[in-house]
Amino acid sequence: MVIKQSRLTKKCGFCGKGFRQARYRQLLELDSIGLEITPDGAREIASEALRLGTGARGLDQVLERLLFPFRFDPDPFAGRTVVVDRDLIAKALGKTG
User: Fold this and answer.
1) Which of 46, 81, 90, 93 could cross-link to 34 by cystine, CB 3.0-4.6 Å?
2) What is the CA angle 25-66-93, rounded to 5?
3) 3-state DSSP call for residue 96?
């Protein structure tokens, strides 16, 4: 079964204010940190989940990796908004170019 990136992005809560965005937004708001996932960020997260071969479950795995620094030591980020875009994902996952 082949899962398409667009389906993974739309059906799993990254478009608009889906449930995954809402869940992680609420977690970060406990530490006064905002969260915004851009459309290109959502596509990159879906691409990484597909690359891992984990499908929808991989979305959470990728998000946990991306947001770990903000959740582990939130004080420096309090009052700010984390923008998950292509650049943040490339840095967090060690991708270049």
Assistant:
1) 81
2) 160
3) coil
> What are the tens digits of pLDDT across the range 32-52?
999 998 888 888 888 888 888
Measured over the CA atoms of residue 88, residue 92, residue 95 and residue 96, the dihedral's sign is positive
Q: Give yes or no for a contact between 59 and 49, defined as CB atoms under 8 angstroms apart.
A: yes
Per-residue model confidence (pLDDT) at position 58: 81
What separation in angstroms does the CA of 37 have from each of 1, 2, 17, 40, 68?
27, 25, 9, 8, 15
For the cut 90, the answer to whether the pLDDT of residue 4 exceeds it is no
By C-alpha distance, which of 65, 9, 80 is closest to 40?
9
State residue 30's pLDDT score: 92
- The per-residue DSSP string of 26-83 comes to HHHHTTT-EEEE-HHHHHHHHHHHHHHT-HHHHHHHHHHHHHHHHHHS-GGGTT-EEE
